[in-house]
Design a protein that fits this description.
By secondary structure, the protein is mainly alpha-helical. The protein has 29 helices and eight strands. It folds into three domains: 210 residues, no CATH class; 160 residues, Farnesyl Diphosphate Synthase; 183 residues, Farnesyl Diphosphate Synthase (Orthogonal Bundle), CATH 1.10.600.10. Strands 4-1-5-6 form a four-stranded parallel beta sheet, sandwiched between helices. It has a two-stranded antiparallel ribbon with strand order 2-3. A two-stranded antiparallel ribbon has the order 7-8.
Length: 599
Amino acid sequence: MDSSQHAQLRRRRRRSTSHLKHVPQDRTLREVLRRACCEMAQQMDKSQPLSKEQMEAAARLLLEKHQQPEGYLGWTMVMLASAFWQSQVAAVPYHRRLFLLPHCLKHAEGCPADYDEFGLDCRKCGACAIADFRIKAEDLGYKVLVAEGSPIVMKIIVSGYVDAIVGVACLNVLEKALDKILLAGIPCMAVPLHSSDCRNTSVDEDWVLEMVQLPYRPQQAQTQTYLHLMRAANRMFQPEQLRQLAPPLRYKEGPIPIDQKQLERLDTLAVTEALAYDFLAKGGKHSRPFITLAVYDALTGSPCTSPDGAAEAENLPEEVLRCAMSIETFHKASLVHDDIEDDDAFRYGEQTLHKKYGIPTAINVGDYLIGLGYRLVTREAASLGAQRAADILEKLAEAHMKLSEGQGTELMWRDAWQRPLAPVDALKIYALKTAPAFEAALYVGARLAGEVDGLKEPLAQFARHLGIAFQITNDLKDWLGDEDNKLQAAADVLGGRPTVLWALALEALDPQEQQQLQQYVAQASPEVVPRVRALYEKAGVFLKAVRLVEKYQQRAEAVADQVEPESLRRLLYYLVDTVVDQQLLDHFQPQTMELQPLA
């Protein structure tokens, strides 16, 4: 498929998927469609992962051929993806496969199984299918997790414990898996549940056992994958490689992350460095250093994303790794300072640095991380060459200054007595606060690979559109809360932050309602959140925000359409699909918008 065809498919992105998640209830029909998926997959080019758009187009053709309704689209896409990846799952030994099972397969009444740290302990019970599946898989050597839509799955994969996933889940959960797992080029198979009602549901048990017992067949891998680079980005922040790439000057021994007792025994000169390394090693998805590594790889022949690129990814030049790490140090520094300015209580599920150690210490740790970021680049001046090192430092400094300008604009707005804000003003703040980090990550990867004259402006435009889409998505997520950072939903409103949601509300409400909104927010009490929500809903804020995200996604894709080489264009498409949470956007569609926490 050429770039124009790919771009055309992407323009057909669905806005709602709830009507596309029906499961064929007749077993014979399921068998027919499953065989058709296997036959179609055998004819496909497996050198690149299937995009969601390609999967959808193929699944639609298959359903049309068999005269079946569009409602089976989601189910058919899962079966097609499973058939596409089957040979590569088979190439992974059993002990390197992860088997995911849902809680809802257990009997709702009278289940005696206890929960342990890994989910249900099913060996103590034989009353339902979970026990049969789990015991069979564990006897073969699988790692098994009984957890519905667990957010730790990608972490398990990226950490290097397993190389393929097989699972059972409802179509709602599997749709999210397509976004996060299949697009990255991670071998994955699944058998959908017969319903999504999460209570005493059923599954084609023989298909599950067939999938679990898929024989190990060593073979040459075929499909390109970003997994090796994800693992490379993750490894940089593991204690051993972190110390190797950024040798501490004072905290030369001791655990990373650090414990409180060790911290109390440290020489006072080493405390700042120890806290900085501790924070650098904690949490986060390392998406920005991944972007730098992936752009570098795309512009140097894609050795690390080749099917057998694990060794290449483990041996990336240290100057490339250090420059990628510098992007994360600047990001982490901005988080420390931002948490202080917003007085946030939690980061990565723990107390923020300023809550734990005080504001002066936290400011100092953030400043240290900024210095560390510049040192990571300057120490590579000889290997990078003077001009390339200077170009990278200039881009990092530019990103740092823009971030400060955007944050300063936000602070000035928060401190004002009157708070008029147009949507365009909020978007300008986002362009300064969020987009520069993406731009720096993209630019540094390209500059490490060589000259960037023809890419500098397209990458800047792409980063601007992607950054804005990402930030609006975060604004929406704030109304749901999350398990790590903003445990309180609507924290942006309670903190008086200038979001595009606020601006859209002011634009749509009449003067009396605007005054009410101002008064509610001035109270800064969780009790006013339902009232603010009601005004937001009246103004149509949430759906308007979703449409804005889609607009900026399309703008980012339009830039990507024109980028060469194809390996870089594919990466940009991948970033659009993964940086912005499509499931979150679907949650705010009219038929699903209940503003309840996501599963």
